[in-house]
Amino acid sequence: MADITITLPDPIAAWIDKQVRQHGYSSHGDYLADLVMQERVRLGEELSLHEVRDVIRVSRASGLGTRSVDELFAEAEGRAETRAAKLG
Prior knowledge:
The protein is an all-alpha fold and 88 residues long. 68% of the residues lie in helices and 0% in strands.
């Protein structure tokens, strides 16, 4: 694994701290790695078998959700509509 040092403005660093705490990430690095993975998926990049296994491992470790299937689909539809509107 590689180490990367970055400097961020205080408001952005505070926002990242909040995301790490609120969403149960074990570190800033885990949060940023998740963001990068989400962006790669969004861009349609193919993930390696190892990366897919990591996604599954993290998903399983996060536990059971509290939202219903209908709530999950409603959120997904909302996100899809927002993206479609942005692409216009």
